[in-house]
Write a structure and sequence with these properties.
Pfam families: PrmA (PF06325), PRMT_C (PF22528). This is Protein arginine N-methyltransferase domain-containing protein. This protein is an alpha/beta fold. It has two domains: 115 residues, Vaccinia Virus protein VP39 (Rossmann fold); 194 residues, Hnrnp arginine n-methyltransferase1 (Distorted Sandwich), CATH 2.70.160.11. The protein contains twelve helices and 15 strands. The N terminus is likely disordered.
Length: 388
């Protein structure tokens, strides 16, 4: 899922529905629905952004993402075949088509953006109109004719939580999912770790000290502010990460609540694996596709970092996992980096600890406010930034 200015496209991102299944053909009278209720401005912008084909192209071309979903659907085919599926924020409908081809009796494909019009045409072109019902609207306002056996959604934003689409999935779970039903993905884990990135610091900050032989150091303070005032979405490698990762949050989609989503605080304590400057903190996530009775690779916040790595290594090639970690194949989510204005020098085995709070913005619940505290070697740094 791609956000607004961070990806070069306008506005935030993705769709959540409105209208009943009877409205799928555009027959609003038959659906018992008049004009759609007015949207909040942030929702209007959010849904409008997902009308742009470029966003869907980027997501579908993300092979890691799309293959993970296809693998998960086929792995759980026994839960899908002959069953009713709800696709929350279906976009172009590709996941709905995957489910239909896996034998789903019916798929309700719900999408609030205008791309729903094209999704309906895609379903028709693939001769799946008897199985897939595309509903143009928000999931919070949909009136389905039956409960569903499976909920599937690609709800993850940058830093996992950006865009705040997960509450819509939880709403659908509480209203429409049958007891013992399947949610894909089922579990998500957000990781964090201090990172070093001297090349980027040099290119963004030190660059101004000598430009074509001209001393432009007067711009260095402004460059530091520009580099660190907002989270950066970029790809880093495992060599940039200077400690084992800490778990910021583990989410079980079968039990997590929208209330918990509003504000999450976690304390962390890691040890530097090298002598290097810390330029900031990196965040990335993994999602798993497990049934409600299956044991997930549960990563509680106090789990030893080595156990996290060991759990990852024990996974078989058949496990359905989508990872955005620096050491794994890059995805369109990349990693989210919170840069400091100035680097902090650390020695090998030096303790780095503090806390992070991520909360929904009051001005726009699709935005995130981030408060990070970091203490190491007698230095304490406090960083506040917003993800808009």
């Amino acid at each position: 899922m791609l956000p607004s200015h961070l990806n070069g496209h306008s506005a935030l991102g993705r769709g959540r529905p409105r209208l009943s299944a009877a409205a799928a053909s555009g027959d609003f009278a038959a659906a018992g629905i008049g004009a759609a209720a007015p949207l909040e401005e942030h929702d209007r912008i959010y849904f409008q952004s997902y009308s742009h084909l470029g966003i869907h192209e980027a997501m579908i071309k993300d092979r890691v993402r799309t293959d993970a979903y296809h693998t998960a659907i086929m792995r759980h085919q026994k839960f899908v075949e002959g069953k009713v599926v709800l696709d929350v924020g279906c976009g172009t409908g590709i996941l709905s088509v995957f489910c239909a081809r896996a034998g789903a009796k019916r798929v309700y494909a719900i999408e609030a953006s205008e791309i729903a019009v094209q999704a309906r045409e895609i379903v028709k072109a693939n001769n799946l109109t008897d199985q897939v019902v595309v509903i143009h609207g928000r999931v919070e306002d949909v009136d389905l004719e039956e409960k569903v056996d499976v909920i599937i959604s690609e709800w993850m934003g940058y830093m996992l939580l950006y865009e705040s689409m997960l509450p819509s999935v939880l709403f659908a779970r509480d209203k429409w999912l049958k007891p013992g039903g399947l949610i894909l993905p089922s579990h998500a884990t957000l990781f964090m770790a201090p990172i070093t990135n001297p090349e980027r610091y040099e290119s963004s900050v030190d660059f101004w000290r000598d430009v074509y032989g001209i001393n432009m150091s007067a711009l260095v303070p402004l460059a530091k502010k520009f580099t660190s005032e907002e989270p950066s979405i970029e790809t880093i490698g495992g060599e940039n990460v200077i400690s084992w990762p800490a778990v910021f949050k583990h989410i079980d989609c079968y039990n997590f609540t929208a209330e918990e989503f509003k504000s999450i605080t976690t304390k962390y304590k890691v040890s530097s694996m090298m002598l290097a400057p810390i330029h900031g903190f990196g965040f990335w996530f993994e999602v798993e596709f497990n049934g409600p009775a299956e044991s997930s690779h549960n990563f509680p916040s106090n789990l030893d970092p080595l156990e996290i790595i060991q759990k990852k290594r024990r996974r078989s090639s058949e496990d359905a996992v989508l990872s955005t970690a620096p050491e794994d194949e890059p995805t369109h989510w990349q990693q989210t980096i919170l840069y400091f204005p100035d680097p902090i020098e650390v020695k090998q085995d030096q303790i780095i600890e503090g806390s992070v709070t991520v909360s929904q913005s009051e001005e726009n619940p699709r935005f995130l406010n981030i408060h990070l505290e970091c203490t190491t070697g007698g230095q304490t740094l406090v960083k506040d930034c917003a993800m808009r």
